[in-house]
Amino acid sequence: MGLLKDVGPAGLVPAAWIFAAAAVLGLVTARTVLIAMVVMDVLLVTFFVTTLSEMTGPVLSAWQRVLAVGAVVNVLGTLDLIVTPGGGSLAALALYAWIALPAAAYARTWTVMSGPTYRHVYLVGAALSLLGLAVFAAGGAALLDDVAVAVAGLAVVGLGQTAGIVTAALQNGGRLDRS
């Protein structure tokens, strides 16, 4: 696919989760979040369009669907931030979608790959995403209402998704045996 397309996500995924945690902690302004969402919209749509013919087969087509659905919910979240400064339900939906969508694709990746031992990283990525989702949701719920717990959930999500995307980048770059 090309060096930037192969390795770029390995840097962008952890950066996105660090940024999300900073936003939950109130370390960035609503305007900064809006700008980041617009940048993410542009990157997602560009990546989707430029890889459409390249992302085929059972694994990459699952990730192409993640990009498609993710781009739609991200744009809706961006529009929500424009209409409702600080965000409303669509902005929250975008965040939850970016936790759940990759989890489903990591599970699909693990299922389809049968050979290499490192394929289990994808299963761990899916599991950590879902565990992080539960922790994040509990931290943000009225029951706990604990920002530290919510951020811990995002850290778990970020760890799992970063492990998966770094593994994919190494695999795509030929640094991991594909057998």
From TrEMBL:
Highest taxon in the source lineage: Archaea
Keyword Transmembrane: yes
Transmembrane stretches, start-end: 7-28, 34-53, 89-109, 121-143, 149-170
Annotated keywords: Membrane, Transmembrane, Transmembrane helix
Name of protein: Uncharacterized protein
Annotated source species: Halorientalis regularis
